Here is the input.
Amino acid sequence: MEITGTITGITYNVQCAEELRTVTFDAFDCNTSPPACLVVRGTDRIALSKWVSPKRTRSYPYERVYNTLTHQRRVTVIPVLKDEGASGERDFLQWDTVMLMSLLDVHVILGYYNQATARGKKVTNFMFDSTYITKQLKELFTSEQQARQWNIAQMQYLQSGLLERVLDGYSTIANQTGATFHDDAGIEQFRRSMHDNLERFMEFSRKKSVLAQNREFNTIQPKEALSSATKAKVTIHDSWGGLYYFTVDEVAIDNNTLYMIEDKHTAHGVIPNVSDIKDGLLKMIFYKNMTGVTADGVPMNHIPTVSLTSRRLVSSISTADKEANIEQFVSENNLKPVQKKLLEYLFKEAKINGIEIRLHHAE
Here is the structure.
């Protein structure tokens, strides 16, 4: 199934974000700060998150961004390139990753690594050029640019000068560690894609996004326990001409209502871990704000849904239940107090935003 829709703005009320630790600007170091924190400079504060890879499906960057969304000003630090050595992965920044953050009103600081550690044939323990990140953050504290304006300026600087800093950083790491990285062909392709203008880079990134969408569409992940083979491709347009490619784990149609279901499964716990859940919730923000939704060209009402499954659950519950008895569910499944509290916040977030949460047994 092919699902399409448009986002013209984001409205969503986050309930499950964790309380962020406060770090003063003078003491801030991007490499030692928490994955998400509140940076304070005088009377100003910015909620900051950081990615460990430009790839959106690695190390829960969505969870980190989600935890900043209750704050008025937020920024996320994303590396342009992560190369784990010739025997490891290599991930490049994509245009629509930055534009997705713009939709969420999250400013982006594009960063680069200049320190790392060799471990066998791979490279690990990457560290940002924190001086550069801090300089960008200082500029953001005094900037009045909206997220999209700021983020496009970041992309323009990537095109005009930052990429050379990225490559110099890897030369430094190579000298430090003696590591061998991937060949230059991918770097040159990446460089050429933004040589003329950002539109060319945008098209280059989108081709890669479509390929990634196709791979995800044909893959069942270990953290999915699907009740049917009904994955679907999702293409979202925004009001600036952006295109975003997702894959939803399951779909169901009932009386012209399309359920877009994100599955999170745990093989050992009673409830999937909170990082998986928040990854799903951030996708709900995008799905919830889609308008003009169609499924294979047919207009549909839609309900974004998170399905939480475990082989240890002995009963089921859903926000769609008219009288969802949380206490009974908690008792039957032996939930701990912290799990009960998470469930309460999840249901509150779902009801406020018009999404659905389901919990049930699955192998």
